[in-house]
Amino acid sequence: MQDADFCLFIFSCEKRLVVGKHLSEGKDLVDWLENEDILIRLPVNEADILLGYLVGSGYSLEADKGQLYLYDEGNSSQEETDIDQVVDKVCDTNYTLIQHTAEQLAHAEFHEDTTELESTLMALYLDEIKLDQIFDRTKYRKGNRNISFIAVNGEIKSDVKGR
After folding, report:
1. How far apart are CA 33 and CA 39, in angstroms?
2. Tens digits of per-residue pLDDT, 12-38?
3. Within a 10 A sphere around the Cβ of 139, how many other Cβ atoms?
4. H or E stretch covering 87
5. Hey, which of 21, 45, 47, 116 has its CA 20 to 30 A from 55?
């Protein structure tokens, strides 16, 4: 990697300076996931959607030594995260935007042109379909499926039984 591929960000825990890679494009995120052997696989277009929502919400994604960091541009803070948490955050953001846009559309005056709001809402719904597909690959969805399986069949797997 070239030095230009790295940016500097502060990690407040232990008051140490960490040099990490700014993941600004979907390809950067896909490459990082593959290099770190993270089990979730994303095509570049899905990674672009995730990063687009983060940037649109005032966040960026950084990576250093196998760890992802979510950087809040608004208050210059960051926290450790993982790809599953990033996907969950983006899904929540999409849901909030759908609710907000639908509310604006519902409260629009009769004479108002709502074409832009309708287009925005349609784009958000299309993103929701893609984000649901991504979410299905996270530990959260996998965990929910296991819980459902246990509840439906009335049995508890041996690795969960003693807990």
Report:
1. 8
2. 333 323 457 899 999 999 999 999 998
3. 15
4. helix 83-106
5. 116
Question: How crowded is the C-beta side of 60, counted as CA atoms within 13 Å?
Answer: 17
Phi, psi angle pair for 80, to nearest 5°: -65, 145
53, 94 Cβ separation under 8 angstroms: yes
**What 3-state class would DSSP assign to 8?**
strand
Judge contact between 90 and 132, C-beta under 8 A: no
The rounded distance, in Å, linking the Cα atoms of 42 and 34 is 9
The tokens describing 46, both together, are 């899905």
